[in-house]
Amino acid sequence: MLTVNKLLPQGRGLAPVLLKRAASVELDWDVRQKSRFDATDSTGRALAVFLPRGTSVRGGDVLVAEDGSLVRVTAAPQDVMVVTTCAEHGSRFDLLRAAYHLGNRHVQLELQPDRLLLEPDHVLADMLRKMHLVVTPTQAAFEPEGGAYAAGGHAHGHGHSHGHDHDHGHGNASAATTEPGHGPHCDHEHHGHEHGHGHGDPKPDAAASGHVHGPHCRHGHSH
């Protein structure tokens, strides 16, 4: 078995002629989101892939084996649900709202300008149809967004931390529109992310904390 321990994102830096000559391997997302897996390439070689933990493999990436040979990765078609707006009753906002609710449930999503792709789930399909969206089962390559899922695995009950701080001072109501859409039927739970948002027109208890500053605030701060 040939060990593979290096990945070149999208074959960056390689000459096209080398990519053309390279063997290939077709993998679905269930395999590609892992950093360690076995596979068989187009020449019949057995591969033992050992990438740094947290690495996921995308279609178009190139694996480098211990003998220096290259293996091009193709994203294999797999079962997915394609979510689009209803031409009769819907709007683009419906997709935005759906992405918010799905993301809040830690669902892996591929985002496209006019559609969402996710792995099959009949409960989520019913929820999306109730939101006046069209859900179509099909087979396609699946490339969900990275970020929170870069470490691989399905995000059910995991804990993660974001390596950045948010410190936004919103001094007017229009800034609030940048927040995720909390619609009248929003029943989501808030997860343990701490964002330092100071919104205009704060509640009395928020103002008492001394950390919410209005647009015309000129007093000194000592944090």
From TrEMBL:
InterPro entries: UreE, UreE_C_dom, UreE_N, UreE_N_sf. Residues 7-71 form the UreE urease accessory N-terminal domain. It is found in: Cytoplasm. Residues 145-223 are annotated as: Disordered. The keyword Oxidoreductase does not apply. The keyword Cytoplasm applies. One of its GO terms (molecular function) is unfolded protein binding. Transmembrane segments: none annotated. Involved in urease metallocenter assembly. Binds nickel. Probably functions as a nickel donor during metallocenter assembly. Belongs to the UreE family. This is Urease accessory protein UreE. The lineage of its organism: Bacteria, Pseudomonadati, Pseudomonadota, Betaproteobacteria, Burkholderiales.
